[in-house]
Amino acid sequence: MSLCGTLSNLWRNTYLRSNLVISFLFFVLPEGPGLAQDKQIFTQKIPQQELEDGLQPYKVLHAEPLYIDLIRDLGARKGEKEWNLGMGLKDNLSFDSYEVLVEYEWAPVNRLGLEVEFPFTFYSPTGGTPGDLVPSNQLDALQVAIQWTFLVKPEIATSMALGYLNEFQLTAFDSFAKPFFKGNAYNPFLVVAKRWGRHFHSLIYTGPIFEQVYNTGDWESAYEINTSFHYMIPGTINFIGVEFNKALEHGDFDMTIRPQMRLDISESMLIGIVAGIPVARENERFSAFMRLIYEPKPKKD
Predict the structure, then answer these.
(1) What is d(CA 77, CA 116) in angstroms, rounded to the nearest whole number?
(2) Radius of gyration, alpha carbons of the chain
(3) What φ, ψ does residue 237 adopt, rounded to 5°?
(4) Cis status of the peptide bond prior to 179, with omega within 30 of 0
(5) Given this model, what pLDDT does residue 285 score?
(6) N- to C-terminal Cα distance for the chain?
């Protein structure tokens, strides 16, 4: 069996198992205390999170979506850092695509996050699709991003941030470095997050994308609105929830619903499992995605 065929079977099994686990958790998790705002919410102790009383600057705990994630925690503190390894499978009707990403994010100063990401995509034909109709494998882009949290309000459990993500888009492997860069994408964005009570979280990540194609000089634009809602299990940083990835381009509306769950598997390691259900996408069927998150504890001064 080919490598792509092996990966396809592995990810299809992962997709089915993740859906079963998510469905099970929706039925067995204990109920929260409701949506009433708790005035003492900002003193709640959460394991494995640096939210101790007196630690400054203060930051509000928010559930971060797993597919379109943030550049760094909202209200990030100097010295924080995180590694991510993501792997995904997407059914594109006539071929499958396999996503692999490596991401590093850190906070050089309080409330400022930086990120570097290398996303790869590998393709495999399905249903007898001729090989020349399947895209070439590629390192999609060199992505760099910055995010500044300009508002942290513990009294109302709300944080807001502005950010910018730049994609230096690369050519496919079969024509790599001919030229090296084929285009650029510019993506300013706004993040608004609020916690409702102790355990319910909402977040919106939105902004335009302007894409420049070098060899033709053409420009394309789109607008993305990514919203998410999560329930964090009491006494942990584990959560279940859903992410809605929406895009408007040339008058066309696309949306994918992504039910998801996050579990801590060690003191510094988390795993996130995501299923993708397209609602208004013409060339995409179901998908699955998994993210491994490693966050070493900052060194004490």
Answers:
(1) 18
(2) 20
(3) -110, 15
(4) yes
(5) 79
(6) 53
In this structure, what token pair is assigned to residue 46? 């959460």
**3-state secondary structure (DSSP) of residue 116:** strand
Confirm if 19 and 258 have CB atoms less than 8 A apart.
no
Best-predicted range by mean pLDDT (175-184, 188-197, 251-260): 188-197
Residues near 22 by beta carbon (within 8 Å), at least 6 away in sequence = 240, 259, 260, 261, 273, 275
| pLDDT-based confidence at residue 44 (cuts at 50, 70, 90) | very low
DSSP for residue 52: -
Report the candidate in 55, 25, 27 with the shortest Cα–Cα distance to residue 42: 55
**Where residue 54 falls among pLDDT bands split at 50, 70, 90?**
low
Half-sphere exposure of 54 (CA within 13 A, CB side): 0
| Of 102, 121, 85, residue with least CA distance to 287 | 121
Amino acid at 86: G
pLDDT surpasses 50 at 3: no
- Backbone region of residue 177 per phi and psi (left: phi > 0; alpha: psi in -120 to 50; beta: other values): left
Q: CA 294 to CA 266: how far, in whole Å?
A: 9
Structure tokens at 230: 């999560």
Contact 247, 253 (CB under 8 A): yes
